[in-house]
Structure to design on (241 residues):
């Protein structure tokens, strides 16, 4: 997945928007969806969409859709991988951003209490400020030993120091309603935006949490109220005798 993103962000001199969306279900499993959108110039530079190596992603367990055309001759790439338990999420994010790469100290916890379940997500997002971060040894070997196939001077001339050239959005959708988050809230999820280019490094903690009330606890509470009401009625009837 690192090489997949690396191939796309090397398209300097244009606009590339990447989104990593984490959706958590009630049991603590869920999926990580990676979406990368290229503007028309980036799509032109890419040429054959097969260059992103979707077959390798599928072999690694990712579900990869066909590239989608966007208005204005852009392209959208989308890949999804599921995880079964909270502990597996960090490993999936390592595949996206590399081990000790973009996503560090990832934690997803679930705490069951009487009447409610609390979900908590936290991580550090670490970006170098250069698209070279999204390369690896295998990709560099295919590109004449250069991380993105271009010298630092070529990256500079191509717009690698433009903070708006490549952006990363992280979205976390936890069970429940309005989350408690240090990010923005939109469409029931928390989200954060970070520049991948521009030369300024990023090291920021992100966090989101939610609480889901148990329907069983609500039924128990209603039952208790009904018992109290029945007791009151019984006492009043007894006193009237």
């Amino acid at each position: 997945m690192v090489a997949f993103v690396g191939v796309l962000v090397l398209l300097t001199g244009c606009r590339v928007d990447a989104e990593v969306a984490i959706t958590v279900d009630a049991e603590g499993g869920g999926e990580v969806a990676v979406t990368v959108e290229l503007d028309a110039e980036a799509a032109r530079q890419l040429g054959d969409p097969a260059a992103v190596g979707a077959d390798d992603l599928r072999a690694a367990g990712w579900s990869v859709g066909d590239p989608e055309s966007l208005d204005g001759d852009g392209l959208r790439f989308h890949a999804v991988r599921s995880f079964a338990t909270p502990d597996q999420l960090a490993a999936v994010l390592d595949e996206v951003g590399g081990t000790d790469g973009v996503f560090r100290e990832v934690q997803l916890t679930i705490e069951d209490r009487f009447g409610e379940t609390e979900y908590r997500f936290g991580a550090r997002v670490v970006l170098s400020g250069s698209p070279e971060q999204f390369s690896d040894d295998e990709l560099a070997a295919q590109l004449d030993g250069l991380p993105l196939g271009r010298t630092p001077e070529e990256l500079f001339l191509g717009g690698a120091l433009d903070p708006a050239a490549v952006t990363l959005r992280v979205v976390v959708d936890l069970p429940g309603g309005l989350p408690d988050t240090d990010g923005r809230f939109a469409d029931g999820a928390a989200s954060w935006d970070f520049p991948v280019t521009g030369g300024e490094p990023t090291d920021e903690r992100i966090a989101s949490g939610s609480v889901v009330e148990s329907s069983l606890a609500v039924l128990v509470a209603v039952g208790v109220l009904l018992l109290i009401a029945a007791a009151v009625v019984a006492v009043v009837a007894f006193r009237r005798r």
Remarks:
- The first helix runs from residue 2 to 9.
- The two ends are 79 Å apart (CA to CA).
